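hi! just following up on the protien thing from before. the input was this:
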Amino acid sequence: MRTIQPADESAPPEVQPADQGTLPTIRLASILGLLATAVLLGVVTATAGLGVPGWIAGLVTGSVAPALLVTARRRGDRPVIFPADWVTLTRTLLIAAVAGLVADSFTRTVSVTALVTLSTIALLLDAVDGQVARRTGTATPLGARIDGEADAFLILLLSIAVSQDYGGWVLAIGAARYALLIAGWLIPWLSAAPLPPRYWRKVVAAVQGIVLTVAASGLVDSLTGMFAVAAALLLLTESFGRDVIWLYRAGAGPRTRRATRLAVTVLSAALVWGVLLAPVHASQYSANAFVRIPLEALVLVALALVLPAGPRRIVAAIAGFLFGLLTLVKILDVGFYEEIGRAFNPVLDWGDIGPALGVVRDAIGPTRTDLAIVALWVGAILIVAAITAAAVRITTVAARRRRDTARGLIALTAVWALCAGLSLHVIPGSPIASTSAAALAAAQVRDTQAALRDNRTFAQALTGSDPQADIPASNLLTGLRGKDVVVAFVESYGQVAVQGTNFSPGVDTVLRQSTASLASAGWSTQSAWLTSPTFGGISWLAHSTLQSGLWVNTEQRYAELVASHRFNLTDAFYKAGWRTVSDIPSDEFTWPAGTDFYHYDQLYDRRDVGYHGPTFSYASMPDQYSLAAFQRLELAPGHKPVMAEIDLVSSHTPWAPLPSMVPWDQVGDGSIFDPMPARSQSPITVWRSADTVRQFYGQSIQYSLRALTSWVTEANDPNLVLILLGDHQPNTTVSGDGANHQVPISIVARDPSVLSRIAPWRWQNGLLPGPAAPLEPMDAFRNQFLGTFSTHD
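and the predicted 3d structure came back as:
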């Protein structure tokens, strides 16, 4: 790259009258460029394949680029072709071949190797022509401009290629140079002066080409590539922003400056107005939600009119900072409502963020998760800073124009009061006279107070008397003696899977077929509903609620529970003589609570079940393998009765890629599953559409249910008792807004005495509970279960 002008330089070309030799030279350059391009395109066709669209695009680029270079030189003050120009001509030849491949990619699959090789050579030659120009003493502004245009066109082509996989937003990288050029034609000050040389600008231009080439190569996975391309776009935005600011300062006139100040003021007002009115539910975002008047903004402007300059700036900065924090709370609320169906609690929910990041880390890897965390922190800082600056700007302008501001404030306050008195609404639940920001702040205070009281109530329940813990071992679970009892949690198996959705008929069909298959093999099934303490995630809250008989709905409660000596279901089975086992195939770390609180005899995770197959996003192994490994490790002939909790995670978000069932005698070490991830869609592809997400969620539930019920008939253990249930509903992308917390629960047994004992529960026959099936809170199950299957003196 030459040193005098950068890739994003926007100065106009030097135009002088053309001499008589220009036209023949252009023709000769076009002919030579056309011939050289034809030869290179022929080589590409022979080695990688190239269609008619590629030939057309390549030939046009290969003939026009040399002609433009020669024309620019002929019209310049030094009308000769310099040595560095020949390097640039070679680059344009390579870029023409890249243009051919990119044009061809819209009609067929092209060779990525050819595209990356040609682009890489063109990028490397970008450094060569600068060296040649400097060593030969022929570096000129026009040469740097020509070199920069070649860079810009190559980046445009690469952004088009990458956008086909990553989305149209990538085109912003390639279009930035040309957007600034067009803006310079429409806005004179953007082209009034040539930009000064800036080394950082060259670095940013080089980064764009390198990142786009790597992304196009497929050497990194899609998510990592997206992070890299997004980072490159941010760098480009920063570079162009600095250039625009320099051009504004150098060439903008008084009228332009006034218009800019007005635009900044309007944007500041719109930003503060918007953040004060922004809803906390994603589904409530619409234009009507912002056609309201925020009381908080009126108060801020009123303070600006009455306070002196120093206090005014302090108050504005504090108010802007608080508005920024409130905006972050709203963002958290949107996320919490989407994922777990409730608002963010300032006391109880900070502990949920760490486990949530752990789930993300398991799904996308530690490096990409760390990049995402950094991006979130930077974004949060920028949001608070921008809102604070906007509040200061609004109050400053209001103080400068007190009379006009006072009139507008009085008018808006009168309208606000009238709308408040008449209770006028644009949309239901959103009054025009808005106090939503103040109400949210007050709600945060109330939630904090309620959370503190709730903590005291839970602590009392945790340390209070527990009659179940006093049942003698000889009386415990006598109705299940000699039975293998398996509690199988099916991840995200909620009511929406079986009722009222476009994917529930498929799940219902699997449940009916499985019920019939089990019945033909001698098994009976009964089902009902439980209300889960969690929604969309944090599955261990449901597990601990079922086991402990206490309502564990936050991370803080969970931490207090596992630090206590609460008597749980596992304790009951252990006390009554069962071997107790936990099988969590998604884990790969030491779990102290498994031994210290649940007191399992054996803990299995992904490290010790002998799996040598592929992962399926979050799921480290298919559910079928988890069940086969449990059968092999714990249910060998002559084994001691086992009580086990198995957490099946093939239905865990992001629900892609998905495995498929294989014959049980071919499961082996799991290598049979090796080709399956490539056959299914990737999480990024699936999550581009909410409809596709729901479809894959339904398919994942069908797979987990098939694997579990098929395992029951395959194991053919007459002493097996299976408790099959969901841990929570899936997130709102699948469940929709306002979904309940209900999950299905079923008991499968071969011994008629087991189901006869639960007859008083009035559960429904089959694996598919109907709307009228009994509903109980999940924390009631422990007492109900122990009371039914134990002997009472």
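Residues 1-23 have pLDDT under 50 and may be disordered.
The first strand starts at residue 293 and ends at 294.
cheers
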